[in-house]
Amino acid sequence: MGVLACGLLASAVRADDDDLDDVLGGFEHEEPGFEVAPENAEPEPPEHELVDVSGSIELTGSVNFRSHSSDTGTDYQGLQRLRFRQGLQLDADLPWSTHLRLEGWAFYDAAYAIQGRDQYTSQVLRDYELDADVGEAWLRSEIGPEVDVTVGRQIVVWGRSESLRVLDVLNPLDQREPGRADLEYLRLPVTMLRVEGYAGHWSATGMAIPEVRFDELPVVGSDFYPDVVQLPEQKPRQFGSTPEFAAALNGIFPGWDVSFNGAWFWNDEPRLSGGPPATSLKHDRLWLLGSSGNYTTGGWLLKYETAVLQGLRFFGESDEKTRFDLLLGAEYYGLTDTTIVVEGVNRHLFDHDAEIRRAPNYTRTDSQEIALRISRNFFHDTLHATLVGILLGWDARDGSLVRFDLDYDVRDALVVGVGVLLYQTGDVPPFDAWADNDRALFRVKWSF
Amino acid sequence: MSPRVAAFAALLAVLAAAPAPAEGPSAREIMERVDARDDGDHWSQDTEMVLIDKRGGQRVRKLRSYGRDVGPDEQSILFFVEPADVEDTGFLTYDYDDPERDDDQWLYLPALSRTKRIASADKSGSFMGSDFSYADMTDRPIQSYEYTLMKETEIDGHPVWQIEAVPVTERERDETGTEKSILFVRQDNYVVVRGLYWMKKGSRLKYFDVKKLEQIDGIWVPTEMQMTTRKGDETLHKTVLYSRNVKFGDVRGDDFFSVRQLEKGP
Predict the structure, then answer these.
(1) Tens digits of residue pLDDT in B169-198
(2) Is the interface score ipTM higher than 0.85?
(3) Digit-coded pLDDT (tens) for A97-127
(4) Nearest to A336 among B10, B51, B177 (CB)
(5) Choosing a second label site near A91 at 20 to 30 A (CA), which of A28, A180, B90, B146?
(6) Are A323 and A290 in contact (CB under 8 A)?
């Protein structure tokens, strides 16, 4: 018995050694097909180019799979978008620590020609079929070791949120197809002078924004526009009107950061003004005082954004109103290759009354938005899945939106993707008119 | 002789028959020397990663990176150069030596003109789609491992110590996604030239192999290394990493390892 035990134990130890030797033998085993291609085997180090031109060519499409029409009678079922987009960006390093960026883009949407252009309103064809614009165009210079000045069209992101807006008021958004615009094209740059000073953990930023630019909204004839009449909009001149002004103080510390923000700006959301037949849309000036912050602990990132907005006006109301927005959110990074983000905001309107709740204001005393975003990478970052859900109201009573995207890297810088975008109707505009706007999405993008 | 005594006697016999390590430093002393090895206080380099999948498809990532030691901690900033769809994306890390302290990490996304702070607890995720994880790209705290000197052997004609490393904390195990590893440390320069990692998920093994080791400004630098992921006998994925333009003494201050610089680019 003792001899048997001795033998078994010795065999077990030898077997472990053999297993380990087998495993270590993997170092000498080069499986065919895993050799580095000759063009990659002797890489040249990347050179820092003083002038760099980059860009992308993109085809995006969507197919509306539910029968529906716009209020003007256009049938929007079937192919709704087949858009070819070209973007170009030039970056140049200039003397005296100065950097120049020039960006432009253009798109043509063939869906309108395929479906018959005569089906669509002139406003839809003007805004959705063919468009081109200057994107970011700025010059940045270090005028001292701790001071940067940037002048030109640019994007400044104040918000910490992935999906909701509280502090992110400086750049308007492209909302022509709500939920459809890819994040990278969502914010529209505006011309500003921005001065940033740095001291230790703190930085201070001051901005003067002479270009007045508002959200791009759905136009009459679009399936996202809930009427047959486009009201005239009283817009301040794009240049030459009272500029917007903004300032921020940011602190970045180990494990946490904080910002304090203030702005005097034009409200992107217009309100109804006057009465028939002189009813029009008007933008008001708002004051904003706010703060935001992040805190990390383990796999969690916790965040807040808060703002007091003063100067809000409503149809039929003579007084200016004040609103208090509070956003709380959490991001979880504890799962491999996965990020989960949950955010919720409550917007509380002070001095609320019944007039504000009724048409055409449709504004509650407290309105909520909740967003969930889950993203995960698979197969060594070649497949990217993203699920975004946004509820308006805790129980989605004012509508909801769900978007799921699946992008696959066919090869370096070439991505194909499919997705689906679903809308659920709500009690108040605009979601009450969007319930049948569900669509399937696809895209191919090559970057260079 | 009772069965229990017989088994104990057998164990003694097996242990007696096993080759005892020669007199010399303990496994922990060796790993302390690995940790203390001069790897430069300030450095910069260009990196190219070739990612090879099972079908032979190859993707290339090019980076420009900078790093510095701040006491026992390390700060690094890297910028993507290729592929074009992620060009100018930046990643800033403050890697703290204290295993109880969370690293600080920020990601700059040029397409969104936005810098995001991110939490860093899970380092087992793929670094840019490669076989290297975030944990592989940062120093592993030696106090979080128990080391056992297995034997002395040779790799490419160089004497090495073969050392088993096992995480002693669940936190380290979770963060790195590694159950245990075997490391091969060259005796002449204390460079880990090979590593075998048993991954927690998917019964996978990762093979780390330094293919080219150069002395630059007196400091040993692996300039070509590969990480191969295997399951059983099957190779699942492989990454070859080349380092070029390695420079030491490229001194940059606090203002360079900052969110400000992250947004400006290299």
Answers:
(1) 888 888 888 999 999 999 999 999 999 999
(2) yes
(3) 999 999 999 999 999 999 999 999 999 999 9
(4) B177
(5) A180
(6) no
User: What's the rounded Cα separation, in Å, for the pair B215 and B234?
Assistant: 34
Interface test with B, best of A17, A36, A85, A170 (most B CBs within 10 A): A36
pLDDT tens sequence across A289-335: 999 999 999 899 999 999 999 999 998 888 999 999 999 999 999 88
Partners of B230 on chain A (C-beta within 8 Å) are: 26
Chain B residues with beta carbon closer than 8 angstroms to that of A377: 125-126, 129
Enumerate the residues of chain A whose CB falls inside 8 A of the CB of residue B111: 183-184
What are phi and psi for residue A10, nearest 5 degrees? Answer: -60, -40
Which of A198, A252, A447 faces B85 most closely, judged by CB atoms?
A447
Which site among A4, A50, A296, A386 would you substitute to test the B interface, given the most B Cβ atoms closer than 10 Å to its Cβ?
A: A296
* pLDDT tier at A251, thresholds 50, 70, 90: very high
Decide if A43 and B260 are in contact by the 8 Å CB cutoff. no
Domains belonging to chain A, first-starting first, are 2-31+49-447 (2.40.160)
Are A296 and B264 within 8 A, CB to CB?
Answer: no
Facing residue for B3 by CB, picked from A5, A146, A337:
A5
Residues of B in contact with A2 (CB under 8 A): 1, 3, 5-7, 9-10
Instruction: Please tell me what DSSP assigns to residue A44.
Output: P
Q: Is B180 on the interface with A (CB under 8 A)?
A: no
Contacts of A294 in chain B (CB under 8 A): 117
Total Cβ atoms within 10 A of residue A209: 23
Q: Beta strand pairing status for A321-332 and B145-155?
A: unpaired
Long-range Cβ pairs for the range B181-187 (8 Å, 24+): B182/A20, B182/A24, B182/B150, B183/B31, B184/B153, B184/B155, B184/B160, B185/B30, B185/B31, B185/B34, B185/B160, B185/B161, B186/B155, B186/B158, B186/B159, B186/B160, B187/B152, B187/B158, B187/B159, B187/B160, B187/B161
Q: Are A294 and B117 in contact (CB under 8 A)?
A: yes
Please provide the size of chain B in residues.
266
Residues within 8 A of B (CB atoms), A 72-131 only: 99
A412: tokens are: 């370096």
